[in-house]
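Morning F.,

Quick status update on the modeling queue. The single chain you submitted on Monday has been processed. Sequence for confirmation:
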Amino acid sequence: MRRSVLPAVLLLAACSANDDPQKVRAIVDKANADAARWYASADTQSLGSLFTEDAWQMPPNSPPLVGREAILKFWQQATSWGKWDFTLQAQDVSVSGPMAVERGRYVLKFTPGVDAPKNMASFEDHGNYLVQWRKGADGVWRIAADAPVSEAPQAPPGQSQ
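C-alpha cells below.
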C-alpha cells in the first residue's frame, strides 16, 4: 500500500501559517510585561504558568532549574527574600512553526527584605538573554528554556559584589 505524504505536508504548512511572527512577538511582549509584574509582586503561581512542564531556567552562576516545579520552588523562596524588579526588552523574535526564539536585554534590581539571608545585599544586574518558546497542544506559547547572560563584571575572588 502506498501512502501519500501530502496530508503531512499540508499539516506542517498549516501549523507554520498560523504563527504570524508579529502576533507571536505581541504574545512575547505581553508575557514579558506580565513576568516583570509577577516577579515584583511575588506571584509565583502566575509566573509558573509561563513555563512548560519540562522547562529549563538557567540563572547565571548556578545550576539550571529543570522543570516547572523546580522553577516555582526556587522563585517561591527567592521572592520571600525581597523585591525582584526586572525590565525585559525583546529585541528579536524568530518563529518557526510551534517554536520561537526571543533574544533580548534585561535589567534586574534586587532589594532584600526582612526574610533575606543576613549576608544578602541589594544588587543590580544587566545583560542579554535567549528564551526558547514552544506552542503547546492547547495553542498557548510557553517558555521552554530561559538563559540570561550577565554583562556585569564578576567580583575578584574573595570579594563580594
